[in-house]
């Protein structure tokens, strides 16, 4: 738990200053500090681990006043992530991740195990990445290592300063999703700075909107979207509130469950009975034994194939199918559909199992609900 | 061809002069690294002192080497070392200061502030930030300064012959005195060769000491 009480910090010219800011981040939640540059969000973040000292006010971490704690000790128990430049270029990936455990004098074996565990969690095979150097990684991979380093000694609290800011939009989207998945498991208490309101709405349990050193609104994302505290917040959130709300909704919440599906070993005859003209069904998803998505088959493909003899589904299935994961935001799924020109997209769960299908129609219904 | 002949005929003398030359430079350089690197690091925290130190080291560089020896002979004569290797070593030591101090200072100061902030932010003490982050990151540029100083010193070291300190300069100065050009060529050739070899050895050492991540 993190609590700021009337925290202020003055700077010459007022840029980056912080003026009487109070808020509380409950244990296990993500609070996002967002606002235009110079609004004091990064200063606020850096006062929590005492990289900056507040001029007045108090900051509590787990009900302990941080000004009474040795700052070195405090920082070792708070994970800290900055933009990808923060990795140490002369250290290998393993050494970078191990920095804090090393400072805390963990034994060698425990450190090595922890490094491997974190690399695995980040989807980077330890044997392949352990001994590489930061310059040998892509921007997205470096950022994953930045997060892994911050979590190395398993601190209950993470501070993240625009961690995804320097990434291309696709990589950013992917890392945001991974980040949410990891957070779902680990339940860290996180303060996260961004200038991107979309990122704030997507990732935050709470969003803190700052302007000129003041905290204007501290609320759940839906409240910020639907009941902006003032003109500034409304402006900052933007006019496309309805579309932004799509970021708050996960695909599984709006998909059509139980879509038409065929086993990959099925015969063309079975396919035709499912896709008969009387059923009105023009396509079916093709799945394997565990209902894992294999592809798509259309009625006309079956008709063509059937004319030429006894075809198997396995031979004519179109395996080149784009799918989205069940907890993708509807906003991301929609942009996926638009960029591939799809009217519908299958929704898959763990191990690629088919769970449903998302169509423009289902999205339209959601939009209508939000607008009303 | 006659230079080649000269070298063959005088090989033992040349080798011992080369060894002496190397000895003078090596002693001066080790001493210079031991003082200039810590000084270069120290002044990164004291801006005014940094300006003064770099200025003085710069002034020393501008003193012609013959004149510097001219100052050192009477000064060291007080302790009975006016002639011989000591004034030569002191002169070389002084010449090595500027490239090493300046490179160390610049290298430490130019470490990306974001990296330092990351180090402080995850709980390193100032000492840990210096030794685990700044120094390793500064190493390539510090090495460049040391290599610079070595090449410079091997050249300037020829002057040591003038005050009876020996070294390869002996061939050059005697050659000039006797208008014996083979001797001059021999001295010049071995000075250059020594400089190239020393630079190469330091380059290899640099490859070993500097992290692969910085290449």
Describe the structure.
The complex is a heterodimer of chains A (372) and B (215). Helices cover 39% and strands 23% of the residues of chain A. By secondary structure, chain A is α/β, with parallel strands linked by helices. Chain A has two domains: 2-248, Rossmann fold (3-Layer(aba) Sandwich), CATH 3.40.50.300; 251-371, Roll (CBS-domain). In chain A, the strands form four sheets. Chain A has a six-stranded mixed sheet, sandwiched between helices. In chain A, strands 2-1-4-5 form a four-stranded antiparallel sheet, with helices on one face. Chain B has 215 residues and is mostly helical. Chain B has one domain: MetI-like (MetI-like fold), CATH 1.10.3720.10. Chain B is built from nine helices and no strands. The termini of chain B are far apart. Classes of the chains: A alpha/beta (372), B mainly alpha (215). At the A-B interface, helix 2 and helix 4 of A face helix 6 and helix 7 of B.
Give a short overview:
The complex is a heterodimer of chains A (372) and B (215). With 372 residues, chain A is of the alpha/beta class. In chain A, 39% of the residues lie in helices and 23% in strands.
Question: Top keywords for this entry?
Answer:
heterodimer, A: 372 residues, alpha/beta, CBS-domain, 2 domains, 4-stranded antiparallel beta sheet, 17 strands, globular, B: 215 residues, mainly alpha, MetI-like fold, 80% helix, elongated
Beta-strand segment tally of chain B: 0
| Low-confidence sequence ranges of chain B | none
Q: Oligomerization state of this entry?
A: heterodimer
CATH superfamily of chain B: MetI-like
Strand % of chain B is under 5%
Shape assignment of chain B: elongated
């Amino acid at each position: 738990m993190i609590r700021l009480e009337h925290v202020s910090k003055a700077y010459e010219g007022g840029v980056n200053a912080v003026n009487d800011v109070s808020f509380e981040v409950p244990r296990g939640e993500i609070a996002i500090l967002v606002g235009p540059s110079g609004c004091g969000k990064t200063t606020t973040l850096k006062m929590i681990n005492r990289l900056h000292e507040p001029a007045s006010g108090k900051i509590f971490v787990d009900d302990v006043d941080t000004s009474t704690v040795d700052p070195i000790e405090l920082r070792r128990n708070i994970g800290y992530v900055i933009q990808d430049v923060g990795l140490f270029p002369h250290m290998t990936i393993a050494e970078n991740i191990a920095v804090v455990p090393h400072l805390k004098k963990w034994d060698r074996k425990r450190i090595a195990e922890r490094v491997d565990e974190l690399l695995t969690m980040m989807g980077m095979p330890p044997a392949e990445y352990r001994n590489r150097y930061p310059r040998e990684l892509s921007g997205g991979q470096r950022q994953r290592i930045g997060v892994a380093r911050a979590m190395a000694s398993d601190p209950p609290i993470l501070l993240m300063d625009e961690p995804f800011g320097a990434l291309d939009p696709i990589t950013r989207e992917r890392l945001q999703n991974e980040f949410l998945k990891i957070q779902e498991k680990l339940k860290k208490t996180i303060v996260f700075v961004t200038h991107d309101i979309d990122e704030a709405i997507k990732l935050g349990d709470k969003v803190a909107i700052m302007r000129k050193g003041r905290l204007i609104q501290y609320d759940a994302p839906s409240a910020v979207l639907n009941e902006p505290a003032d003109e500034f917040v409304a402006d900052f959130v933007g006019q496309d509130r309805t579309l932004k709300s799509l970021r708050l909704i996960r695909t599984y919440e709006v998909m059509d469950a139980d879509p038409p599906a065929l086993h990959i070993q099925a015969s063309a005859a079975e396919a035709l009975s499912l896709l008969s003209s009387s059923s009105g069904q023009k396509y079916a998803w093709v799945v394997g034994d565990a209902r894992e998505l294999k592809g798509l088959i259309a009625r006309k493909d079956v008709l063509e194939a059937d004319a030429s003899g006894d075809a198997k589904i396995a031979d004519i299935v179109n395996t080149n199918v784009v799918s989205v994961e069940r907890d993708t935001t509807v906003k991301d799924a929609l942009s996926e559909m638009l960029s591939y020109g799809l009217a519908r997209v299958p929704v898959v769960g763990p191990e690629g199992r088919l769970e449903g299908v998302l169509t423009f129609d289902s999205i339209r219904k959601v939009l209508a609900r939000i607008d009303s | 061809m006659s230079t080649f002949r000269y070298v063959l005929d005088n090989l033992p003398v040349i080798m011992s002069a080369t060894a002496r030359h190397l000895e003078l430079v090596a002693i001066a350089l080790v001493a210079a690294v031991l003082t200039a690197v810590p000084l270069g690091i120290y002044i990164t925290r004291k801006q005014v002192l940094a300006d003064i130190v770099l200025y003085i080291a710069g002034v020393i560089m501008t003193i012609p080497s013959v004149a510097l020896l001219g100052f050192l002979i009477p000064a060291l004569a007080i302790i009975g070392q006016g002639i011989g290797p000591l004034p030569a070593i002191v002169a070389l030591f002084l010449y090595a200061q500027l490239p090493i101090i300046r490179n160390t200072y610049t290298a430490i100061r130019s470490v990306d502030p974001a990296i330092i902030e990351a180090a402080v932010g995850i709980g390193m003490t100032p000492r840990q930030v210096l030794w685990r982050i700044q120094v390793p990151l500064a190493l390539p540029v510090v090495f460049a300064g040391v290599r610079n100083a070595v090449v410079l010193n091997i050249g300037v070291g020829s002057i040591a012959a003038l005050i009876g300190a020996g070294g390869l300069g002996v061939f050059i100065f005697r050659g000039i005195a006797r208008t014996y050009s083979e001797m001059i060529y021999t001295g010049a050739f071995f000075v250059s060769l020594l400089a190239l070899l020393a630079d190469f050895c330091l380059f290899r050492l640099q490859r070993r000491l500097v992290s692969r991540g910085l290449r």
